[in-house]
Amino acid sequence: MNIFRLLGDLSHLLAIIILLVKIWKTRSCAGISGKSQILFAVVYTSRYLDLINAFISPYNTIMKIVFLAASYGTIYLMYMKFKATYDVNHDTFRIEFLIAPAAVLALIVNHAFEPLEILWTFSIYLESVAILPQLFLVSKTGEAESITSHYLFMLGSYRALYIFNWIYRYYAENHYDLIAIVAGIVQTVLYCDFFYLYITKVLKGKKLQLPA
Amino acid sequence: KEQNKEKDEL
């Protein structure tokens, strides 16, 4: 464990908490993409199956359980409890166009052709594009509540911090994982224009408005 | 540098 990965995991945890608080406090999931939340649940489910047979550390196990519970909890809030506030007309990204290519690529490019390894690889590829429906929704509505932009900033920062973790591990621990690194860079790049808007607008107290 | 094998990251 290193400071970059710890900060990354905490940023990730904070993002998930901010989202749950936003939905619970405002009793609304307006501006949030349920499609992205479904993709995140698929990512965590396919990646954390090793909870059953591999124990790394208490921290690792607890965080995996928290991420799984929070992602399914968010889906429950969005599609059941506060279903009336779900923006079904704008949340129209076809996630099958993200799931299928990730699955196909995982079958072709992986470290080993074994079920758990393929599922892990699939979850890495899917996570790199899982935010697209959310960014698509923000671009369609043209704006985002400031708490939603804080959520996105934390979520985007988590994988950006992981990139520093991978650089650190390459030099300090002599190992790397190219699949995770390439997918992590793609994932972070997708947030770039959002990061720009967040830093130039939201941090100045303005609302996040995308140029129409 | 060897390829990362154990999955110790979240």
Automatic annotation (TrEMBL), chain A:
Superkingdom of the organism of origin: Eukaryota
Stretches of the chain forming a coiled coil according to its record: none
Keywords associated with the record: Endoplasmic reticulum, ER-Golgi transport, Membrane, Protein transport, Receptor, Transmembrane, Transmembrane helix, Transport
Protein name: ER lumen protein-retaining receptor
Single GO MF descriptor: ER retention sequence binding
Subcellular location: Endoplasmic reticulum membrane
Cellular component per GO, a single term: endoplasmic reticulum membrane
TM regions (residue ranges): 62-80, 92-113, 119-139, 151-172, 178-199
Tagged with keyword Endoplasmic reticulum: yes
Family annotation (InterPro entries): ER_ret_rcpt
Similarity section: Belongs to the ERD2 family.
